[in-house]
């Protein structure tokens, strides 16, 4: 593509110029599961991704207003996966043994959802507070006895908590910081609330993994940023902080946990420079690599549609497994409606009986899935493949086949 033909915008972190490299078209809210009555008022926006020439941050070209996404009925419950329950219990124990081992430690979580991580901190008797603006998931956490504030974390709310509770030893967020376009306000809030020697730790899907696996379904309304060690280091420095550690994580298709401290407080580990060097060698933030990714995305669409059309012509029963937010991007970009995939099963009561965003596949309870009801299962929750395939062994044994599209379209 020539420079003139590429769309451009302004970086939400540094005001630099962003250049678009992938256009995923008109898309719905990824976590809005609809009733028939909602169909006429469904919300759509333009999903396109660009990279900042100055700070290398990869980001959406258009932001969806936060209240459209995170509200009373937000239907994502973090405790829905056994793998993630274990991951968060282990993560909490790591903090409890280190930063939270002193007297009267204080732990703050941004985007605490149903309390999947806070529960372990609470059981250890450590002072905690979750920020969770989505009503029902926050209520689920409070029902477990957890302390949760129903607000968005940002500068103003952080100042209030600093005044009432004092400084935090750890401010933590999983799969939330990448959801927040207004990162300046987040860093100002962290600056207010974090103890002088405290750490700000967040983990999110890693750009390097997304490019390597062509997992373009990680791109949707809620995922505004696609972090790399280089872009996070630049962002931290911009706000007076420093990236002092990185750790790659296997969850959600590949993530990185970033540890940030006030500039000069902690010596950065070797892992930081190593990961940045690895990214530079792979050209992670370069337009060439990003446009190659975009080409592969189009290839997946072609291959997946060809397979689904063939299965339909052969009279096979095809359903999908896991009504993930991610799958909204895949289904809407490829045009996968009930003509190609009859329904999708999911364990979340709040999603069952509803229609998926945009292409309107009916969502049914996971108990309805079996080799009696399906010949092929399109694995929308591919990031939980191990957990799901282990519990659905009968499907495979009875001749059922899984359809995967990460890192390419294949059967299993
Ligand atoms: N940490 C959980 C939940 C991730 S989903 C996990 O990893 O599974 C993202 C959550 O962040 C949602 O529950 C959403 O309501 C919340 N959120 C979005 N913006 C936020 C903000 N500014 N402050 C606090 N929470 C926020
Ligand atoms: P997930 O991939 O964690 O996130 P996102 O929605 O952000 O893309 O979502 C997993 C979905 O799959 C969630 O709706 C719960 C469902 N699920 C099942 O139905 N069965 C399972 O065994 C697991 C692990 C998840
Ligand atoms: Zn920038």
Task: Give an account of the 3D structure.
The protein is an alpha/beta fold and 412 residues long. It folds into 2 domains: 78-288, Rossmann fold; 289-411, Rossmann fold. Helix content is 33%, strand content 24%. The chain has 13 helices and 18 strands. It has helices at 66-69, 82-97, 118-123, 135-143, 155-165, 183-193, 207-213, 229-238, 270-282, 287-313, 326-334, 385-391, 393-397, and strands at residues 8-10, 17-28, 44-52, 58-60, 106-110, 127-131, 148-149, 168-174, 194-205, 225-226, 241-249, 255-262, 318-321, 344-346, 363-365, 376-379, 401-404, 410-411. The strands form 3 sheets. It has a 7-stranded mixed beta sheet. The protein has a 6-stranded mixed beta sheet with strand order 15-14-13-16-17-18. α5 runs parallel beside α6 (183-193). It is globular. Bound molecules: S-adenosyl-L-homocysteine, thymidine-5'-diphosphate (TYD) and zinc ion. Residues 11, 13-14, 16, 52, 54-55, 57 line the site of zinc ion. Zinc ion is lined by residues 11, 13-14, 16, 52, 54-55, 57.
Count of separate structural domains: 2
What is the residue-mean pLDDT, rounded to a whole number?
A: 97
Using the alpha-carbon principal axes, give the shape: globular
Radius of gyration of CA atoms, rounded to a whole number: 21 Å
Gap between N and C termini: 36 Å
Number of strands: 18
Question: What is the CATH superfamily of the largest domain?
Answer: Vaccinia Virus protein VP39
How many individual helices? 13
Instruction: Specify the CATH class of the largest domain.
Output: Alpha Beta
How would a textbook summarize the main sheet? 7 strands, mixed
Corresponding CATH architecture of the largest domain: 3-Layer(aba) Sandwich
What class, by secondary structure content?
alpha/beta
Uncertain regions: pLDDT < 50 for 5+ in a row?
Answer: none
């Amino acid at each position: 593509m020539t420079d003139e033909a590429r769309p451009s915008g302004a970086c939400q972190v540094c005001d630099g110029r962003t250049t678009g490299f992938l256009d995923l078209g008109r898309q719905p809210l990824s976590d809005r599961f609809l009733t028939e009555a909602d169909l006429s008022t469904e919300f759509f926006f333009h999903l396109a991704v660009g990279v900042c020439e100055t700070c290398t941050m990869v980001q959406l070209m258009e932001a969806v207003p936060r209240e459209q996404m995170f509200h009373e009925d937000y239907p994502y419950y973090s405790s829905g996966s056994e793998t993630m329950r274990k991951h968060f219990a282990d993560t909490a124990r790591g903090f409890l043994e280190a930063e939270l081992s002193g007297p009267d430690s204080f732990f703050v979580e941004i985007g605490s959802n149903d309390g999947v991580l806070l529960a372990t901190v609470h059981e250890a008797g450590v002072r905690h507070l979750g920020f969770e603006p989505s009503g029902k998931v926050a209520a689920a956490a409070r029902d477990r006895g957890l302390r949760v504030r129903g607000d968005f974390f940002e500068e103003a709310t952080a100042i209030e908590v600093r005044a009432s509770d004092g400084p935090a030893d750890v401010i933590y967020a999983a799969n939330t910081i990448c959801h927040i376009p207004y990162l300046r306000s987040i860093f100002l809030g962290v600056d207010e609330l974090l103890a002088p020697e405290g750490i700000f730790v967040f983990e999110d899907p890693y750009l390097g993994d997304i490019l390597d696996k062509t997992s373009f379904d990680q791109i949707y309304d809620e995922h505004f940023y696609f972090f790399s060690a280089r872009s996070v280091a630049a962002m931290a420095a911009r706000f007076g902080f420093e990236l002092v550690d990185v750790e790659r994580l296997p969850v959600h298709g590949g993530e990185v946990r970033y540890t940030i401290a006030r500039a000069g407080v902690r010596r950065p580990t070797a892992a930081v420079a190593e990961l940045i060097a690895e990214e530079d060698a792979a050209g992670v933030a370069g337009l060439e690599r990003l446009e190659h990714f975009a080409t592969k995305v189009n290839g997946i669409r072609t291959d997946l549609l060809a397979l689904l059309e063939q299965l339909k012509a052969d009279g096979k029963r095809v359903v999908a497994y896991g009504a993930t937010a991610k799958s909204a991007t895949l289904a809407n970009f490829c045009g996968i409606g009930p003509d190609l995939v009859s329904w999708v099963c999911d364990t979340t009561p709040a999603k069952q009986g509803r229609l998926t965003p945009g292409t309107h596949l009916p969502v049914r309870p996971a108990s309805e899935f079996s080799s009696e009801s399906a010949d092929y299962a399109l694995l929308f929750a591919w990031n939980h493949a191990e957990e799901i395939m282990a519990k659905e062994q009968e499907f495979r044994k009875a001749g059922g086949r899984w359809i995967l599209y990460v890192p390419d379209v294949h059967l299993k």
